[in-house]
Design goal:
By secondary structure, the protein is an alpha/beta fold. It has one domain. The chain is built from 6 helices and 6 strands; from the N terminus they run ααββββααβαβα. Strands 1, 2, 3, 4, 5 and 6 form a 6-stranded mixed β-sheet that branches. It is globular.
Length: 180
Amino acid sequence: MRPLLTTCGCTIATGARLRNLAEVIDYLGVGGQTGIINSTEIRVHRPTARRKDREKFISGKNKQNAVKAIVLTDASGQLLFCSPAQPGSCADITHARQSGLVKHLVGGPAVEILASVRHQGPGAHTGRRVVTPPHRKFKKSPPAWYKEIYERRGKAHSSPRIRIEHGVAHLKRWGTRPPP
């Protein structure tokens, strides 16, 4: 596989090879790094009519046939892990639990994982290792001081998370990239 990737112009870094989520969590823990997790949907053709679980592929978010994968990067946006694809109807938090994220964080090293709003929940089970954006305490007519604090905390959380969007874009763009 490496010679094929090299001929397509992809550079392959030498060093640690991470094969599963447990190795990624250990790698982040040893280096004292922060991880960033997000889910992405990939649009697919509609499954055949003979397939009995055909409705599972319809995403509730985009109302289209899709599969969903969990992507984990480091703080610089380097892609470390991409989970096997699940049908699009699977919730992000459910997919994270099925992949073993909570299990690996509870028994593993102290690692901070920045997550989106759709991953709220594992933080309580993992000793606050999964960090999500702040909840909005006042939904109607918040005080002026609260609105400012809420916006500042939200920006502080979303600014480092932009790197995972770059990692996901790189992953999706790789297959459509023309050869040099």
